[in-house]
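Note to self: keep these together.
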Amino acid sequence: MRRRIAYMAAAVALCAALIWAMTQMIHHRAPPQAATAAAGASSRPATINLPADGSSLPAEFAILQTHNAFAPGTAQGHGRSGGPEATLIFKGVVQAGADFTAFIENQAAKQVTQAMVGDAVARGRIKSIDLDAIVYEVGGDSRRIEVGQNLNGEVVAPPATQPSPSAPPPDVQAPAGPPDGAGPPNGNPPRSPKRRGGM
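Structure:
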């Protein structure tokens, strides 16, 4: 019982800390509408200033264009863009016994290929594979490539997905009950009779 109370107290403390952190983040950053109203500006809608370089993210999120939030490490190899390595993305590794197999997606051909140590890929070869990364060697230069990076060492954003054309529209619903005449007349399941007495 004491252990259960301790777990509940810890959970409540964690929730309180998360709520406090979220309120701090909200209060330290005034929404554009509030800042405009406080400054007494005209009734124009608030706008978000995008960087002049043509990227689609606000300045505070620009780091997401070069770093993958879900893959460890940082993007490497700026300036090596292009070539066949740019379209080959390292997707992951499978270990079978002592052997590692890397999965590399060719985004241009929309195909995933398997590669092992020593296999030729694009203009180089796979020098080593572990569960977190591969080492790709081209022209005597070795590069550590992590999941989500192309063979140039650059983080690649996943392609935008389109909804499946075969999916039914969201407003279509399946029938709620059994076919006509198969269920009770009021739609409620039948109740079992209640027993009375000492049987």
